Amino acid sequence: MESKLALWVKEQQTDNLALSCRVSKVLHREKTPFQDMAVVDTLQYGRMLVLDNIIQTTVGDEFVYHEMITHVALNTHPSPKRVLVIGGGDGGAVREIVKHTSIEKVVHCEIDGAVIEVAKKYLPEISCALDNPKVEIIIDDGIKHVRENKKTYDVIVVDSPDPIGPAEGLFSAGFYEDLAAALKDDGIFVAQTESPFINRDLIPRLYRDIAGIFPITRLFLANVPTYPGGLWSFTMGSKKYDPLGVDREKIPELKTRYYSPAIHQACFVLPPFVQELLK
Ligand code: AAT
């Protein structure tokens, strides 16, 4: 008999908005020292990682986010060798970064080792590069790691949770100063910067803070259906190279499903309601 039981994961995105996904199976539940973690199979988007009731990633749409948080910045730098990922315990950003042949080392600094373990066990298609010999995993606070490393990285990717509670520090001007110091003289950082529909106070503040530190600051967009609002922003701070100056013909061919040389240019074209936020 077909089960009539309907289990749902519900992310309360704002006081007045929620996204629910029907669950076919609960694979893992754990209270880590940092957060409440679950891995579930959803019928719409496949396997999903949830932390503190916030959807972190799903097998169905993760490629958009992980390709865009990495390739736009990596292809702006002429030869990225040392890359730091802060957060992103699922390993999706690391998987994309090691596709670049110039890469010598990826340091992956995630605060919660339990997220990495669970990703390795239940999300193999996302975590598959975490065992790559070029990857060094450090279980530590990314804020502390950038403070302790100066002029070390070509590119830093901030794959952070939403700016709630302890993650707030990953969205502060002081942290952006530390990122600038941890980058080499021609370094670039990129961070996920939330939804232009929902985080309309946060995005202008971050953009101003980053533009006060980096000579080149650019915001770009992609569609991530399981994140609040569906339209997602990323902000890049660069010391020397402009992502808009990249010669499309010279972008290396990568096996991707969302990012492409045309998307590299198109993602910086902002609708007026987003441009308005950056004035
Ligand atoms: N790849 C998309 C997944 C994430 S997860 C964000 C990760 O950041 C989590 O694994 C969390 O444990 C880790 N994290 C939180 N704070 C820190 C910190 N201070 N240093 C290092 N890692 C940290 C992004 C989800 C975005 C959700 C959008 N709604």
From TrEMBL:
Origin superkingdom: Bacteria
Classification via Pfam families: Spermine_synt_N, Spermine_synth
Entry GO CC: cytosol
Active site: D159 (proton acceptor)
Binding-site residues for S-methyl-5'-thioadenosine, renumbered to this chain: Q35, E110, D141, G142, P166
Domain PABS: 6-239
Keyword field: Polyamine biosynthesis, Spermidine biosynthesis, Transferase
Pathway(s) served: Amine and polyamine biosynthesis; spermidine biosynthesis; spermidine from putrescine: step 1/1
Binding site for spermidine: H66, D90, D159, S160, P161, D162
InterPro entries: PABS (IPR030374), PABS_CS (IPR030373), SAM-dependent_MTases_sf (IPR029063), Spermi_synthase (IPR001045), Spermidine_synt_N (IPR035246), Spermidine_synt_N_sf (IPR037163)
Catalytic reactions of this protein: S-adenosyl 3-(methylsulfanyl)propylamine + putrescine = S-methyl-5'-thioadenosine + spermidine + H(+)
Annotated GO biological process: spermidine biosynthetic process
Gene Ontology MF terms in the entry: spermidine synthase activity
Enzyme Commission code: 2.5.1.16
Function: Catalyzes the irreversible transfer of a propylamine group from the amino donor S-adenosylmethioninamine (decarboxy-AdoMet) to putrescine (1,4-diaminobutane) to yield spermidine.
Quaternary structure annotation from Swiss-Prot or TrEMBL: Homodimer or homotetramer.
Family: Belongs to the spermidine/spermine synthase family.
Protein name per its UniProtKB record: Polyamine aminopropyltransferase
Lineage of the species this protein comes from: Bacteria, Bacillati, Bacillota, Clostridia, Eubacteriales
